[in-house]
Fold this sequence. Notes:
The protein is mainly beta. It is built from no helices and 18 strands. The strands form 6 sheets. Strands 10-11-8-14-15 form a 5-stranded antiparallel sheet, with no helix packed on it.
Amino acid sequence: IEIRPDGVFQTGDSTLLVEANLKGKGFNTVRAEPLAMTVHAQPSLILESGFGPNDACPGEEVTVQLSYRNEGHAHAHQVEVVNPLPPRTEFVSAAGKGIYDELTNAIRWKLDRVPVQGEGTFSAKLRLDTVYPDGYTTISNSATITATDCPIHLGPEQEIVVQAVPKLVLSLETDSDAIRPGETLPLTVYC
Length: 191
């Protein structure tokens, strides 16, 4: 016989009492001595993130998308998600009651509780600096989630590439819309 304690437990240690009875025809009910088991229940907070668009230009807005869930067997209390701003970005806005903390240069979201199997999302808009070195610069973003009864969990690091390359526009202009074979067509090139 196998048993699996499943469901929601108080955070920490709980006692589970296992009892067994055997009944049948021709004999009295036989009872096993109850067995006390300790169940160690903890929340298990998972944080996933997105950062995009993958390719951006200086001065553009980018979006941070954070998804959290509790895969443990106990509710998580006093939950906090913290997303430090990546270098060369500035805060624009945060959905889901996110608060920008200028002192730590981070966005914070606070929840009283994330129940077992509970999940949700947060998002924020950031603006890239208007000046970057010529070429391509990789910007990384990461966030953490923690609770009073759960260790800190670092979400995966996400990257975007900022393209600080000249955008050339080429156009041609001429005074004539028709020519004869062998004639020279004067063109003006604009960049």
